[in-house]
Amino acid sequence: MKTIMATYETLFRRHPANPILSGKNWPYSMNTVFNAGATLLPDGSTLLLCRVEDRRGHSHLCVARSVNGIDSWQIDDGPTLMPDPEKYPEELWGIEDPRITYVPELKQYAIAYTSYSRGGPGVSLALTKNFREFERLGVVMSPDDKDAALLPRRINGSWALIHRPMTPLGSHIWISYSPDLRHWGNHKLMLEARRGAWWDANRIGMSPPPIETARGWLMIYHGIRKTPSSSIYRLGLALFALEQPEKCLARGDSWMFAPEAYYERQGDVQDVVFPCGYTVAEDGDTINLYYGAADSSIALAQGSIRAMMAWLDVNGHSEQAHDRRQPHVASD
Ligand code: BMA
Q1: Which residues, 6+ apart, have CB-to-CB distance to 174 below 8 Å?
Q2: What is the whole-number distance in angstroms between the Cα of residue 116 and the centre of ligand 1?
Q3: CB-based contacts of 64: which residues, under 8 Å, 6+ apart?
Q4: Percent helix, strand, coil in the chain (nearest 5)?
Q5: How remote is the CA of residue 96 from the centroid of ligand 1, in Å?
Q6: For site-directed labelling of 208, which of 11, 160, 167, 255 has its Cα 20 to 30 A away?
Q7: What is the pLDDT at residue 318?
């Protein structure tokens, strides 16, 4: 009898120093650190904007800097960006999951983050030049909405924000456009959660900001598989047209990274890998993916943009070819 052997290509290698940051590194009292935004600073060092959950269960953001992006992190002595519910009531229950985009036209970094309001989680935007002073633009997508990032440049004259509203029919990835970063419209469905048994059925979200390549915006997204006992957060890939980013060119069928290591499988929330940021090395290809592990620590996995594109060429399909395009039956 023939034995069926499945081999899976490894697109990301976990760093042996994982988890690279956790509560035990922190200079002040807290519960956990996870889901960090990331960027390279002009001097080539790495900045992580970490989500820190305190012992009330509320989150704030704190900066950690490192010359090599792996160790010797210099962590701010106290919270870098605290919720400010007096001026911004939408931040009442904390601020979470920042995604950083450097915007050359503004010569500033844009941070899209989840603000946890009395009315649910929404998307807020802030601008900063130095990660010390921040200009808040307030809520740009009202609840329930999260998993947002700004594209680094205008598309046909408009700013573009990717985000993930929740609906009773499923949570899908949308893109919206704005002339001024404050007023948003022209909302377009970008990527749908699949249905049925798929690993990315019913609820998906963008993970780090998309990577601009010559062939399109390469997006690492998470799919949430609800199981009888909990949920599994895994990562997949999709590619979108450069000047029409709501147009999906290809989407991988299988996940390409999933919780396997002990620090991803056990923690405050088991079975979660949740990247909010990456940096690209000088070679223009090596990607350092920073991800929250089990809502309890920050880990690093390294991959290659070229390898992700090659994987998508083999494992991806255009959305038209996909089974979700088949007409729904009445009982569906
Ligand atoms: C999502 C986000 C993340 C979190 C994940 C797993 O909905 O809120 O912040 O890491 O759940 O708990």
Answers
A1: 162, 163, 164, 165, 187, 188, 189, 190
A2: 12
A3: 21, 36, 47, 48, 50, 73, 74, 75, 76
A4: 10, 50, 40
A5: 9
A6: 167
A7: 85
Beta strands in 104-215 (DSSP E): 108-117, 120-128, 134-141, 145-150, 159-167, 170-171, 173-178, 185-191, 204-206, 211-213
Q: What's this model's pTM, rounded to 2 decimal places?
A: 0.94
Its sign, for the CA torsion 254, 188, 34, 20, is positive
Measured torsion, CA atoms of residues 69, 207, 56, 229, in degrees rounded to the nearest 10 = -120
| Closest residue CA from atom 2 of ligand 1 | 97
Q: For ligand 1, say whether the CB of 35 is within 6 Å of any of its atoms.
A: yes
CB 100 within 8 A of CB 37: yes
Q: What is the β-pairing status of strands 59-66 and 74-75? A: antiparallel
Furthest CA-CA distance within the chain: 69
Taking CA 307 as the corner, what is the angle to CA 111 and CA 190, rounded to the nearest 5 degrees? 45
Cα separation, 151 vs 266, in Å, equals 33
CB 55 within 8 A of CB 32: no
* Ligand 1 pocket member 264 (CB < 6 A): no
Place of tokens 């002009």: 42
pLDDT tens digits for 281-330?
999 999 999 999 999 999 999 999 999 999 999 999 887 655 444 444 43
